[in-house]
Amino acid sequence: MTEINHVEYKKYFVDNQRFGPYTIWHHQHWFEEVPSGVKMKDIITYIMPLGPLGKLTNWLFVGKKLEGIFEYRTVITNLLFGEIK
Length: 85
Prior knowledge:
Blueprint: E1 2-8, E2 12-17, E3 24-34, E4 37-47, H1 51-81
Antiparallel strand pairs: 1-2, 2-3, 3-4
């Protein structure tokens, strides 16, 4: 469960995990108006639980899964709204 707790209209919003699998989950969503539309940028900071075991799990699975999720979102967003050059 995340909570949106920082918002600046038409500029960014931030969600932080309240409950869930991560020790820390901080996800910034940035928006920039450009001549051909709106450019989006994500900045994600997260920490896995369980110390060294969590770091290994992140390296083996979680990091790749998160990259895949955001790559997929980029593809779908570009299909729906067009790609910003």
